[in-house]
Amino acid sequence: MIKILPRRFYNRHTLNVAKDLLGCFLLREYGGKKIRALITEVEAYHGEDDLACHASRGRTPRTEVMYGQPGHAYVYMIYGMYHCLNIVTEKKDFPAAVLIRAVHPQSSSVARSDRFIRGRTAGQHRERTDLAYGPGKLCKFLKIDRKLNQWDLTKGDKLWLEARNPKIKLPKIVKSRRIGIDYAQHCREYLWRFSLKE
DNA sequence: TATACGATCACCT
DNA sequence: GGTGATCGTATAC
After folding, report:
1. Which pLDDT tens digit goes with each residue over A54-64?
2. Which nucleotide is closest to A146, CA to C1'?
3. pTM for this prediction
């Protein structure tokens, strides 16, 4: 039974949403293709007091989406060449989001995309999790860019999320410090990066 | 208007 | 371990 994550899933504390997103599926549909990917690594960015959060300097045109309704996408360009996908959390007017750092594409998705990206022939398919390991790489793999900024993720179209299979036991969740935010003073010590062990 | 820099990645030593 | 690519955003002037 496949279930699209509803708005109320995102309208909770960001740390809980982040942990609960592990093992869920990120779905991307474009050009007649549908890719399903297991979420394996996330980071939480929570409120204006979090110095690592883009909203730490308040409302700006860029951060406005994080102040909006939960369950929308916050996609921004980083270093002039990559995009990062975030899931907006918490109630309206509280700025917070979960950065999707890594996903594990389903085999059929990898096969399709490998053929599309690298022109591989049938029989050469194999797991290529490296294609989606890292926030920049997964956006490239899933063709996610700023056109999907503010996209409603509860509609089940173009980009959405589905619940994990409750019958499958989840690997242990590993907590660690967030990546690339050394400027965030004491906030860089927070263990707000969550990943599935393995 | 000008400038500094970043929630990254690939490639180098 | 280090560096360059490349441009939107925030901030300073």
Report:
1. 999 999 999 99
2. C8
3. 0.91
